[in-house]
Amino acid sequence: MVESSEEEDDFPSMESVTPQSKIDTIYQSKTEKGIRKICFELLDLKDAVENLCSNTLTKYSAFLRLSDEVVETKHELNELQKHISAQGILVQDLMGGVCRELEEWSRTGGDIQEVQDSLQACEINDMVSTEVEDQRMQFLDHIDVLLAEHKIEEAIEAIDAEERSHPELKGSGEGSAAESSFKSALLKSKTMLENQLIEISQQPSVGILELKKVLSGLLKLGKGPLAHQTFLKSYGSRLQRSIEDFLALCPCYPETYSATLSNLVFSMISLTTKESGLMFGDNPVYSNRIVQWAEWEIESLARLVKENAPSSETASALRAASVCVQASLNHCSTLNSQGLQLSKLLLVLLQPYVEEVLELNFRRARRVVLDLVGGDESITLSPRFASPLSTFATSSDTMFVDCGMRFIFVVKEIVEQLTHLVILHFGGNILTRIAQLFDKYVDFLIKALTGPSEDDNLTELKEPVPYKAETDSQQLALLGTAFTIAEELLPMVVSRIWNVLNESKEAGIVLADNILPAGNNSVDPKDWRRQLQHSLDKLRDHFCRQYVLSFIYSRDGETRLGGQIYLDGKGEDLIWDSDPLPSLPFQALFGKLQQLAAVAGDILLGREKIQKVLLARLTETVVMWLSDEQEFWGVLEHDSAPLRPVGLQQLILDMHFTVEIARFAGYPSRHVHKIASDIIARAIKAFSTRGIDPQSALPEDEWFVETAKGAINKLLMGGSGSDTSEIDDEHIIMDDEVISDSDDSPSSLSTVDTDESFASARMEELDSPVYTDSES
């Protein structure tokens, strides 16, 4: 105690600490309150559980009472049937009374012996009939008990045994009243059995074994058609439940859901066909019903695929349609071995949907190619496809290259969605649509070229062109892009389609009984390439036409290549001219072609074929225009025109000069030579009618050829002498006005190096390519 007091003196702050006893008291009271509260809650829970159990027992007792009432009702029905049987016995007694009346009548007639015999026979018949009736009543009572106890299999076996013992029960002939009554009662029992069996088959939880027992029971009852109908309904219900469970997941699998639906439907068709054969045999009636049921399910499949598909214009919809056709046709091939020919029906049902998806996808492709979708879709191409087009792109001119990349991207996207069997059945249709899409793409490019369009067929393309190709480099890049797509990239994209079609052709595969139109699967590769070439020719010809027209006509609409230049010639004779040259417009033509060739050498590097085709067509377009221009010939053929030999010589020299340009550049000149010859013949005829003798006024053809070749060399080297310098000065003025549309091009003919002219082409160095033209 002393020590405690000393500690309290040393630590006076300890007086404020709560004693442990007080803490124990406080928390002990709180714990007791919590325990009491929990006990009360547990008691309440106990009461609730007891009430629940009491309610359950009450309801169960009510259920038992209801079951007992049902049993009592069935017993009452049995008693009623017994009463009916008793009435039947009464009828038999009445028949016995008739026999006794006959006996009395016979006795009154004096034939007592016969009456006694008849009476004895009636008594025997009554005894036999009564015994049979008792057996039948016992049998019916037994069947009623089995039905009441739901012992269906035993009831069926009993009825089957009774009918085997008494075949007359299955007959339709009329017997005695007792037999008719028994047949009626037996038929009623069989009807009750049928209803119970059908009710079991309609239960959602019925299994395969239970269903087979139901069907076997119906067959034993002689209800084969009803059994088969129940069989098909049951399998159809199982299929419907499987489809309903899967339809909720369709949005998660937009590209493959159709294949899953196809697998569900055709797997069930195959299973149903096998089970039908095992249970019902090869009865043609049942086989026909299987075919009808399968056709109905396939029609339902086609409808479900369309209803649950993504938007028809998307690539996902095309993929879904493709995998559906692929999976379904594969299943149809398997079902062929089971005697079901469903390929024809399948394609008839799916063809409209597939063609609708193709049509909308190609419409979307057109919008993507023409950049009318606002650039929502990302364009990603592998280097294999992007590299050939990227060579035409510059820092400022990428619009048409992007357009070409979009074209290849969208066509490649469509082709990648196609499966083998879709290509086999719809490949020709798809190739035709691709060619049509390329033609629309070319129409778009034609609109982008400067100059008025003279092609009336382009009125369908109503979309505005956001960009114009104005310079030589832009126009050549546009042409190079189109040619590269048609000749290099597009064949690579569609090679998969051609491979499948060629393999099927070599293998001699017959397509679904030839139900599809011929255009769907038969396309000649040459015809298809000819369509692409026709589109390219249209683009090339428009470029050449507007290019030549911009060279021939000034901005004011005046022609630089009119017949007047052959009436105003200086001198009397070109033959004695020390340095004869073509007329200034043809010198300018040479310079413009040379300048274009220099630009093409950079833009179309490594594509000499395209360069030759374009330059050849340009030269050809000039002479074609000159041949058909009525205003030009109107000047020369007018009666008042002051024609002189020098004018005829100059015209012929210009034509030979044009032909030599083509020969010098190494591209085809046969068509140019033919048109030039026609122009020369017409000019000679015009001059001859005015009294000018061609024989005396014109030198030999060799002179014109050599002079034209010499003029080309002089123009390339820059010429010499004062006269030539004067011509060059005049030509430079024309060059600045007409043909200077590219910063990379030389400003005058004299500054162009020989090695850069016409992509360094020479007749002896270049083989003439095969050149086809629709106008030649």
UniProtKB/TrEMBL annotation:
It comes from the Eukaryota. The lineage of its organism: Eukaryota, Viridiplantae, Streptophyta, Embryophyta, Tracheophyta. Residues 139-342 form the Exocyst component Exo84 C-terminal domain. Residues 1-12 have a biased composition (Acidic residues). Residues 1-22, 736-776 are annotated as: Disordered. Pfam families: Exo84_C. The keyword Transport applies. One of its GO terms (biological process) is exocytosis. Keywords: Exocytosis, Transport. This is Exocyst complex component EXO84C. Belongs to the EXO84 family.
